[in-house]
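Sample 1 of the test manifest.
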Amino acid sequence: MTGGVLFHEQTARQRLDAITDQGSFVEFLPPPERLTSPYLAQLGIPVSLDDGVVIGRARIDGKKVYLAAQVGQFVGGAVGEIHGAKLTGLFKAASRDGVPCVVIVESGGVRLHEGSAGEIAIAETMRAIFECRARKVPTIAVIGTDIGAYGGMGILSTCCDFRVMTEHGRLGISGPIVIEKWMGKKAYDSSNRALVWKTSGGKTKYLLGDADALVHDAAGAVREAIGKLLTRSSPVTLKNAKARQKDLEKRLKRFGKTADPDDLWKSLGVRDIARASLASGPEFVTLARAGRK
Amino acid sequence: MKKPSQRSLLGKLFGASAKGVAIEDSLLTGYAQAGGKDICVIGTCSGTYIGNAAALRLAAHVIDCIERHPRTPIVMLVDSAGQEPNRADEMLGLASYFGHLLSCLELARRKGHKLITIATGKAVGGAFICYGMFADRIYALDSASVGLMPIEAMSAVTKIPVPVLRKLSKTMPALEFGARPFALLGGVEDVWPTDSDLPAKLAAAIAGAAVDDNRAALGKKRGGRKLALDVRNRVLAESRR
């Protein structure tokens, strides 16, 4: 554990240090290499020496891993040309070397200031992730930050073998503000935090089966969950694709008519909504399991 | 460039075999022919939004193709304004539905199906990422609207004035919206004039498709995305040490 500091309160480099074996993290293309965005420079926007993503290698429980952590404080962790190329390179290295790859997502998606360059970079990274999967090299997305995993980074997260979420993490494509603008405040009030988290938060994603682990908002818990997944993979096979198709069809049939997340929670075993809302990740898992019996 | 109607566009692309492609709720699924050989078709039209149900229907058709028509090339047509901006779809896991569609396409690729995309109308943001940009080779009609978003929309979100963005887009095609600037980034292989011999172009595209992702190299060669390939290669070199 990392004392009292929660995972979502840490910076990207602190997170990487906290989830890896002590002193084992070695950064690739570290800040002294001065790789900065020419787009932001031209627009007169401050640049960052890591372009908003820290990548490197380290060990977790003695096992070699490649890691990336997005930096939410820098343009919302959004993916530009360099940022995206670092991610693509890291997953390509993972596939080449047979080393598991973990990405700590903190991003709203494509960096608008770099237009289509970031969009293509995300698509390229997805291809690299699936190269890993074809070689049974585990890929893991960790989703537990303030910004969450949205836009192209939300989709990219679902391309990984596994997703580890905390109760603080959110996974989606369109964020609440965008949807509110589109559908109106009555349909989606983006200031209603409970509704926002029940729509895209770790608890709902875990219940649906889209998050493979739901853990406490602490680096130690995230690290433990990653450790358990590093030796597993989820191969893309016809059997798995057909099972998933059936699953997702069932989900849509069962819940497609409901807009109320409480209905969803109840149907999936959560009996005491108020208690479950305040529960930590692991407490929530226990409550949901008990309710399903 | 006048935008052709959907049926006439399918006819232009697939000739008489276009009748094998069904249009339902602005989704295209079916089988047609290119260069005298069978192809599978999935896609969107009329600039529709893609929600959970739509992603599932496209995925089902990809699975059908893998099971019943081994190694048949899959042609993806894209005319969609984006992901369904809807809270219920988000709650049920729109990102996961898209991830499933991408997995099915990956499975097809691994099983020897060639994947070709043609951006026919809107090919914007999440709607392009969730299937079209995942092809082996990607093409766009010159009438298509390809890219992250138009400069006006980019200006509205970033608060950077339109004239500033427009001026910069002259030297940074990533900021410009459209099929040709997107090609300069390597995002599409080639831009096809809508009135050209599309069936011949499609047949050649299928014949020449390869599974390597050549976009960063193309972007560098064409000068629209100068950094991506080198940064990637530096990561690959540093991680080897």
